[in-house]
Amino acid sequence: MSVIEFQTYIEHGAIELPKEYHDRIKGRVRVIILTDNDEDEEDMVEFLLDHPYQVDSFTPLTRDEIYVRR
Q1: Other Cβ atoms within 10 Å of 36 Cβ, number
Q2: Alpha carbons 53 and 64: distance in angstroms, whole number
Q3: What is the mean pLDDT of residues 15-43?
Q4: Cα distance between residue 58 and residue 13, in whole Å
Q5: 22 CA to centre of own chain
Q6: DSSP code of 10?
């Protein structure tokens, strides 16, 4: 198995193969698609860091409460 990596756009459900690979790639292939959508979508941790959830009744644990062993 050989690996060829390139970036392209998908238009109308088709992936255009760069011309330099037309002679090298024939027959059956395995396709793995990695999207760049992560740049557009904010994950929940990032969102909460940017917009902390405020609770009026919140009391942080003391150092002793954190390390108590039961």
Answers
A1: 7
A2: 25
A3: 82
A4: 50
A5: 30
A6: E
The identity of residue 14, as a single letter, is A
Give the phi and the psi of residue 49 in degrees, each rounded to 5: -65, -35
In the DSSP assignment, the letter for residue 19 is G
Integer Cα distance of 13 and 15 in angstroms = 7
Residues sharing a CB contact under 8 Å with residue 47, sequence separation 6 or more, in sequence order: none
- Would you mind telling me the total number of residues written for the chain in this entry? 70
SS3 65: helix
Instruction: Using the predicted structure, report yes or no on whether residue 40 has a pLDDT greater than 80.
Output: no
- Residue 35 CA to residue 15 CA, distance in Å, equals 13
Residue 7 vs residue 1, higher pLDDT: 7
